[in-house]
Amino acid sequence: MVKQSTLSALEKDVPHSANPPHALPECRLFHEQAEGRTEVEDYIAAKYFQVHGAKLKEFLPFLLQLTIKGQPQGAFGLRAGCYYPLFLEQYLKDPIEQQVALLAKRPVDRASLVEVGNLALTNKSSGPLLLVLLAATLARAGFEYMVFTVTEQVEALMKLLGFSPMLLCSADPKRLEGDSAIWGNYYRNNPRVMIGDLRLAQEVIETSPRLRRLAQRHELDISTMAAKLAYARTREPSL
Question: Looking at the record, which segments are called Disordered (predicted)?
Fold first, then answer.
């Protein structure tokens, strides 16, 4: 069975700032056997159920969680392209590396790809930081493209920040293995399969004073997580 992966579960109608001022967010990467992993999965599942009525039971091999004073603010999952198949390849007619190569107009190594999904947020204001951490960490780890299934809301956030994801296709639930009913009303949000060029995303971060500051504040987190994820480009997770 192909494990589930989508972006995203954005919580609705949450006050914009419920956190104490000056509380510095902390980031941590969880592999499948990591202590505390179950709590991150429970957090993601709860958000998907709250927003979409979805009942997630499976998650991507790596999960990154953002917390403030121990309270979860957001999370997303990652799967290196060396895994066969990626969840979103169910939506595609050809292997993902071939699809990316067509858009990139050059040969693309599958090991340079990473699937992103399981995005969940407690507060929408955490979205920009999560996306900056995502792009900066993946680029530092040596990935060239991220591939993901995204709702209209998250796509709009990406474009607002200056990122330019490329469209592959619509995400058709009829192509999924198993019972698509577990996704609740997720597919009513018109999710689409997209590609993000991580080199271009890194340029956006470096040329935006706001986004660059976010990345600089979390330089140690980015370096630590990137070093671990670099192994995942060609290996099973065993951090």
Answer: 1-23
